[in-house]
């Protein structure tokens, strides 16, 4: 699909359309998402597959004043301390992946009007993660399971289901590992037990029109390079 023809402001009519139009949204309208829509998305997402039907997820949907307070607390933590995720964030990547990651960062900074040498501006842009990029609702995915490869796959299935179901409703999303960076802040704010690990989250809301950031689509490798048929 030609990215110039893609609209992120309308409901996706098919799974294919949801896949082709979904991309990370980093600027949102203040308009709140009705509770019935959020209920519909995440109740359906509970149908996601998991290892032996283990369903290793809990889902915490935060809007309104609670969301505002949490954004302030997370932003403060990010300014004053280093991330302390409960999962090991990857540090080693193959060289081709490193190049894609570097190129992506430079392209996003370019679209955002940030000079690559301007560390202060880059840091401010990173802090937007903890303000949920202005989205009216933040979602945190937690688990009491011992974390392993297959639990990660299960959580990924749930996350992808949520992203596509949100597109079906005409909403934008941004999945964020950063929302698992300060688990104690989230646990304390939401009253979660210590054994409930804060893994990751997503921002969700109505995409802001006429946003250059929202027009940006992350490039993908060609099918010829990644698919093999036998």
UniProtKB/TrEMBL annotation:
Residues 20-206 form the Nitroreductase domain. Its cofactor is FMN. One of its GO terms (molecular function) is oxidoreductase activity. It comes from the Bacteria. Keywords: Flavoprotein, FMN, Oxidoreductase. Belongs to the nitroreductase family. PANTHER family: NAD(P)H NITROREDUCTASE YDGI-RELATED, NITROREDUCTASE. This is Nitroreductase. It comes from Leptospira bourretii. The lineage of its organism: Bacteria, Pseudomonadati, Spirochaetota, Spirochaetia, Leptospirales.
């Amino acid at each position: 699909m030609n990215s110039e023809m893609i609209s992120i402001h309308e409901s996706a009519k098919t799974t294919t359309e949801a896949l082709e139009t979904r991309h990370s949204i980093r600027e949102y309208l203040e308009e709140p998402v009705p509770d019935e829509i959020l209920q519909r998305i995440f109740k359906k997402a509970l149908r996601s597959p998991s290892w032996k039907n283990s369903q290793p997820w809990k889902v915490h949907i935060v809007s309104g004043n609670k969301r505002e307070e949490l954004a302030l607390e997370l932003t403060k933590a990010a300014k004053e301390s280093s991330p302390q995720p409960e999962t090991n964030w990857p540090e080693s990547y193959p060289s081709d992946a490193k190049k894609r990651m570097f190129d992506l960062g430079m392209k996003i900074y370019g679209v955002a009007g940030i000079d690559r040498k301007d560390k202060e501006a880059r840091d401010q842009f990173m802090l937007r993660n903890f303000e949920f990029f202005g989205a009216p609702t933040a979602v945190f995915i937690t688990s009491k399971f011992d974390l392993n490869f297959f639990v990660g796959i299960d959580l990924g299935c749930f996350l992808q289901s949520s992203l596509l179901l949100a597109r079906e409703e005409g909403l934008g999303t941004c999945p964020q590992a950063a929302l698992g960076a300060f688990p104690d802040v989230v646990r304390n704010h939401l009253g979660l037990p210590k054994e409930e690990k804060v893994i990751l989250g997503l921002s969700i809301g109505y995409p802001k029109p006429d946003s250059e950031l929202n027009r940006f689509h992350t490039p993908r490798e060609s099918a010829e390079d990644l698919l093999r048929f036998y």
